[in-house]
Amino acid sequence: MHFFEYRDGIMHAEDVDLRTIAAEVGTPFYCYSRATLERHYRVFDEAFAGVEHMICYSPKANSNLAVMRTLAELGAGMDVVSEGELRRARRAGVPASRIVFSGVGKTDREISYALDEDIHCFNVESVPELEVLSQIAASKGKTARISLRINPDVDAQTHQKISTGKAENKFGISWADAESIYDRARNMPGLRIIGVDMHIGSQITSLEPFEKACILIGSLVERLRAAGHDLHHIDLGGGLGIPYRDSDPVPPLPAAYAEMAKRTLGHLGCKFILEPGRLIAGNAGIMVTRVIYVKRGDAKTFVIADGAMNDLIRPTLYEAFHEIRPVVAEDRGEGMLADLVGPICESGDFLAQDRILPQVERGDLLAVMTAGAYGAVQSGTYNTRPLVPEVLVSGDRFALVRRRPTYDEMIDLDSFADWQRLSD
Ligand SMILES: *Cc1c(COP(=O)(O)O)cnc(C)c1O
Fold this sequence. Notes:
Elements: E1 4-7, E2 10-13, E3 16-17, H1 18-25, E4 29-33, H2 34-47, E5 53-57, H3 65-73, E6 77-80, H4 83-91, E7 99-101, H5 108-117, E8 121-124, H6 127-139, E9 144-151, E10 173-174, H7 178-186, E11 191-197, H8 207-226, E12 233-235, H9 254-265, E13 271-274, H10 278-281, E14 285-296, E15 301-305, H11 314-318, E16 324-326, E17 336-341, E18 350-357, E19 365-368, E20 390-394, E21 397-402, H12 407-411
Parallel strand pairs: 4-20, 5-6, 5-13, 6-7, 7-8, 8-9, 9-10, 9-11, 11-12, 12-13, 15-17
Antiparallel strand pairs: 1-2, 2-3, 4-14, 14-15, 14-19, 16-19, 17-18, 20-21
Helix pairs in contact: 2-9, 5-6, 8-9
The protein binds pyridoxal-5'-phosphate.
């Protein structure tokens, strides 16, 4: 469900005509709908009504400060994976007591900073991390609240690049070692165990892997409690999938996911921590791009737009499908079979392949749908293209929430070596 709809044949973001934003901001740009973010957050939150829970939005899906602020205002916590995300969360006004810190490679500096901020919980992913965390916390005279991220070795049945819960993935502590490592952690200075954590992957479109993992984690919690561990929460991670293709079956709804979690784990009386990212932000954003050329080749027709893989890498990185819609829907007769590509000098630079697109012409605006998660956050400046701007819409208002950097700002990050001189 989202608020990008046609009105009199023109796609709007809530009440704003996308052509208006394009004229003001230039293309390409990302456009987010505040009402959609709010709706997704509320639906997820309400699904867990009746059980103690904390929703820690995963800003790795979309870490724009204004998006994070929108969610913070609704009461969201955050699941950060770096010092940078932690700093963003704090700037967005998220209390440290609602922040958990995940990730396999937390550096000493990041750990130290998060301890100083007194975040709610470290989701620890390995024994070496446990040792470093214990040592740094003890040396500061602090206590780190921790949960161990356990890898339940279930197949999330998703794309290999976003599957994280199998034994061969780099994430989490192996299932077989979980109890012995909990026992070790109990005796380490500077640590207090408060929960258990998992995250098995992303864009998971069936409840089955979640349910398998929940049953396993539930049995682990029972054994850990029997061994005397005081566990207050179960962090289920994120990963619930969203529809990208109009023709795809709708993935399980938050209500069904929450029902499964309550059914499999409710008897333990633990608080749930949830870390949704894509589910909140995915359908709440689009990328708008303008057609530069239509090139009719011998084998294929290419629609060449000003948005490229540096702005949205999902199609080439994950073989992801995004619906492409014209901003101005006119009847131009039969569609055309084409690839929608960007200007970058890479064959992997495409937004859609072998797609029936409407008959497009130079200058047309196209909306790349469902681009709110893992879109702008993965954008870069390859080919010295300016970082793509981001716009947040609320009702009939819109705001530029990340501006396009100037060429000088981009190039001035570089400098000559001291032995180089331009005047020669
Ligand atoms: C990526 C990630 C999430 C969010 O995943 P989504 O599929 O976007 O919901 C949550 N927790 C952790 C630890 C992650 O790495």
